[in-house]
Specification:
Blueprint: H1 3-7, H2 11-26, H3 37-51, H4 60-70
């Protein structure tokens, strides 16, 4: 499969392909998919902010609106 083949695929097929790729990455058990250290730090910071009341949960539609408002494009 080439990039041209993928570009010509319908969106529904591209989504199926992406899902299959993510699934195949998730089953690797050899440790080659370790998260970088900053991921753990970012999660810890988010947990601390939530526990301290500095952060709150919002539903997905609110999150998308906030991201769109703060996006440079």
């Amino acid at each position: 499969m080439t990039a041209i083949d993928i570009a010509e695929m319908p969106v529904s097929e591209k989504l199926k392909l992406m899902e299959a790729l993510w699934d195949s990455l998730g089953v690797q058990s050899d440790g080659s998919m370790a998260s970088p250290a900053w991921h753990g730090l970012a999660l810890k910071e988010a947990e601390d902010e939530l526990a301290g009341g500095a952060a709150r949960f919002v539903d997905w539609s609110q999150a998308k609106d906030l991201l769109r408002k703060n996006s440079p494009t």
